[in-house]
Structure formats: structure tokens, C-alpha cells
Amino acid sequence: MEADGFLAELPVLAFQAVLLFARLGAAVMLLPGLGEQEVPATIRLGLGLGLVLLLMPALAPGLPAAPDDVGTATRLIVIEVVIGLWLGGLARLVTIAMAMAGQAVALLLGLAQALVPDPELGGQGTATGRLFSLAAVVVVLGTGLYALPLRALTESYAVLPVGEPFPAGAGAEAMAAAAAESFALALRLAAPFVLAAVVINVALGLLTRIAPQVQVYFLAVPGQVLAGVALLALVMPALLGAFEEAARGAFMNLPGLR
């Protein structure tokens, strides 16, 4: 009888596992540190399946049974995928701030022509942008911040139960606010280099007026690069500390944790 009962419940369990994987798997593909493009897709897939196995016993009682029609089942799965992508995207925007700051730093240092493949922003990116992106991953993984989005993802089932419609309006507002905060964080991180660029350009302008015979261009390019690299080495520890604090605050504001 126990075997017969298990076989009878197997379709329900399978559908519930699919619902869990739709949200968890979609989020894992975007979570900072865990969903990086450098991480093989098979590992990310395995992490999503592992989360399903881990959370299934606790979340199964609150999951709906398999519906009778395909349309309802498809609608439930699509909603769960959207919620997962939404939660993962909210967390991902924090690390994108580091990539944007790196791009701005490259422009200010005169290194915008040194391009490397950048999976974070897509296509070709600057070397400093890639450096900042990898530094963000190291901070997230090295400090254990990756656990906060995972916890938020788990707690999201209490805030956004399976089967309930996705609040598109509130979700769009949260995404817009997170994007604005990400852009503001990128500007704060790049602020020392903006100030340095202004000082250097004003100094070069004064030098041009004082000594017109000096070939300012041949002095400006290597001098700007050297000064920028020295400033980067000087302020990088503080930048990483500021990013860690901002990322922790952003992760704590994810739905399910606040």
C-alpha cells in the first residue's frame, strides 16, 4: 500500500518539484557570485536542483497540486520563472554597479581603448570594468554575502506564495528603484577618479596657458594613466569596503528579508 500511495503521489510531487525549480533555477542563473557567466551552466543547474531537493520537504505543504489542464500548469510555471528572474535581477543589479564604475574609471584614466570580453555587461568591455566585476564576485563569495540572496529566495515563498499572481506594478517599481540605486552606487565608487580627472585636466589647461610651447598631449596621456593607476591602487581597498557595505544593505532589502 505504501508503494501504491507513493506512486499515486508521484505526479503531484513531480509537478511541485517543477514549480520549485522554475523559481529557484531562474534565480540561480542571475544571483551574484553563484550565477556568473564564468560558472558552467551544469554547475548552476546542479545548484538549482540541489536547492529543490533541500527545500522540497519544507515547502511542499504550501505548494498547489497538479492542475487538470495544461494551461493552468503553464501559467503557474511561467509566473514562478518570472518571480525567480525578478528576484535574481534585483540582486544582480548591485554587482552591475561595480562593472559600471569600472567602465567610468577606464574613461577617466584614458584606458577606454583597452577592451576585453565582458560577460557582465555583454560584448567588449574595458579592462578596469572587468577588474571591478571580478572584484565584486570575490567580495560576494569571500564575505559570505551570497547567502543573503539565497535566504531571500527561500523566504520569498512566504511573501509571494506559489499560485498567487505576480504584482507587476510593485515589481517594476522595485526594479526601477534598484536600478537607480545601482547607478548611484556606481557614481559614488567612481567619484575619486572623477575628482582626479577634473584636477588633472585643469592642471593641464593651466600648463597650456602658461607654457604654450610644451607638448601637453605627450605629457597628458602617460601622466593621466600613471596617476590613475596609482590612485586605483590607493583607493581600491576602500572601494571594496564601500561596495561590501552597499551590497549587504541591498541584499537585506530584498523581498523576504526586509
UniProtKB/TrEMBL annotation:
Protein name as catalogued: Flagellar biosynthetic protein FliR
Alphabetical UniProt keywords: Cell membrane, Cell projection, Cilium, Flagellum, Membrane, Transmembrane, Transmembrane helix
Gene: fliR
Annotated Gene Ontology cellular component terms: plasma membrane
Transmembrane domains' residue ranges: 12-31, 43-60, 72-89, 96-116, 128-148, 189-211, 217-243
Membrane topology: Multi-pass membrane protein
UniProt similarity note: Belongs to the FliR/MopE/SpaR family.
Chief subcellular location: membrane
